Amino acid sequence: MSDSKALYSSNAKRYIEDTVPSNLVDQGRYERSKAREARWNDNWKRQPVNLNEVVKQFAPGDIGHGHGVKYVFTSDRYEIRVDQVAGYPRIFDKRLKRYVKLDGKAGTNQETHFKILTRKEMDAQ
């Protein structure tokens, strides 16, 4: 079983430390992501998720890849789009063309944003 949290975290660290400082486009993405986090983080924290479990459920076996400010895990039906700066994932259903809740059903904007648990929080579960 791959450790999706570790893959995401190491890529996010590289993105923030290496890519952002040297790229104006990514600097803008970084700033917008931090602004979203400042505005919405308290709401996201109401739905904490273990990234390994989310990937196991919606994109089993995928190791993901960086795509700008996002890190994306993909299956035939779903894309888990994880913001590398703000630490929130969203699950996109490619058939419904909508973001979904953890039960796979379409949800509101607020219902489809989650906050990734830290490694320490994951280990405590």
UniProtKB/TrEMBL annotation:
Protein name: Uncharacterized protein
